[in-house]
Specification:
Number of strands: 29
Shape: globular
Bound molecules: oxalic acid, manganese (II) ion
CATH architecture of one domain: Alpha-Beta Complex
CATH class of one domain: Alpha Beta
Strand content: 15-25%
Structural class: alpha/beta
Length: 599
Amino acid sequence: MDVPNPSVLQWVNETARLTQPKEVVWLDGSEEEYRRLQAEAVQGGHLIPLNREKHPDSYLHRSDPSDVARTEHCTYICTPTKDEAGPTNNWIAPEEAYATLGKLFQGAMRGRAMYVVPFLMGPKGSPFSRVGVQLTDSIYVAINMRIMTRMGSVALEELGSSDRFVRCLHSLGTLDPKHRYICHFPQDRTIWSINSGYGGNALLSKKCFALRVASWLGEQEGWLAEHMFIMGVEDPAGKVTYIAGALPSACGKTNLAMLRPSAKFNGYRVWCVGDDIAWLRVGKDGRLYAINPEAGFFGVAPGTSMKTNPNMMETISRNSLFTNVAMGPDQTVWWEGLDLPADTSGFLDWQGRPWDPKDKDGGKGAHPNSRFTTPVKQCPVYSPKWDDPEGVPISAILFGCRRSALVPMIYEAFNWAHGVFLGATLASETTAAATGATGVVRRDPMAMLPFCGYNMADYFGHWLRMGQRLTQPPKIFRVNWFRVDERGKFIWPGFGENIRAIRWIIDRCTGRGEARRTPIGYLPTVSALEGEELGISKEGWRTLLSVDREGWVEAAKRQSEFFDKFGGRIPPEILDEQKALMERLKAWQEEEEELAAPR
Ligand code: OXD
Ligand code: MN
């Protein structure tokens, strides 16, 4: 880095005057620098080196126990008016937020280094890509950013002399949860985060920039920033179909993104482009194109295993950073969902306390939201298109959820507007990825509830307008792998068997695939999933693939309550879709009664 970009330099100097770090360290992203940071982090007690043979070049980090998940109640969208943020976001007026946080940032970095972390979101030279610069006093965050983004000189080269970069300021401060703030100023392309070191609050490239600020930029500029994986599915003839899918946090999005098809379908191959975030644009040919702006995976560890995600197990087998997992006496990592060794003595839990995995009352070894950070390129099914500046053409979009009741395992929207309605009415049971109660159904439109940087009513309108520009819009589907039987056990086997659902989706995109029209959308037949061989009972299939009319009438009422919150701002097309759903449900009842009536 010769002459730094003048706007970056000025901002770095201003911030250093405010936060008073002991030194300012500009990062170039080189391998050598990465090794140096790791060594420093080990020396400072931030990272613990793991077993060299079993986990080469890998480290464990233990966070403060009060700082282990995203804190949505401390997350604010600071638009000039409250209406621009909408009823689903916390809001503080920008001047008030700058004043409050400005005080907290005063001298916040004293005694620590401030790292200047330039990063590029998206492939080099791509019309999709954007530059950010994060200033942080956390060496753990700096190391994570090296894995999660294209970090260093590459970003400053892309930026040139422009001042169009997102200013991401982060300090661990005192880690005081009472004064924790994650504030977004979309109009200023600025993010300020203080008093947390947790990934989703502190790796500002991810949820803060690539979703909250980027969703706002996308609305201004005519594109979409979404909480979606991107996968390419290659059929036995070699044709690759790209699918993007939104699922709420910790609902199996990462597993799906790099699915290894079950044995019967091993002629199919899945290529992973991304597991969490997609930026989507309308291409010259009227199709929707997507990139993954990130360069790493920040995945949930518990439940990741050779059975659920063998590709991820291979990805994290080296050069990875683990946060809040348990550790065996030989410096190997462990979490719930992995097999235990015969001898379990000497384990430490995620807080570093002696822990006996066999003690059923001894609590969890790994925190339920413990994580790994690992480079996309280490994934054995990493898509060569990941770095393509043009992105990949999307044929289907999934809106998935975790629902133990009501929502069928899979169904297809009638058209784009109905698909946007399916996205807008997504609701899911909460997980450990955010603090708060887990297992409670909450509305989570497009899986973006915690991540949309502006009024969600306007966001639905933006989705509808995007559809008008697409001459070949992707088909839209709802998926839910989480239906349970009367004993509370999952009915659908999921994981590698999800390829059956994916095949049906691809069939539907090419005008094939058997389906039944119902009031909520097109549902597959059991034979379209080649489901007969799965050993699921008739009752099980009924649960997975039928429509509970009464339940849906109730659900539609709850959708109205949600839309009512927006005080008349919801686009009429969405409300029309809801009316049409009610009418179809009513008509269907008549049809059923007709069928049931003796002739
Ligand atoms: C994530 C999340 O970390 O959604 O991806 O919480
Ligand atoms: Mn996510």
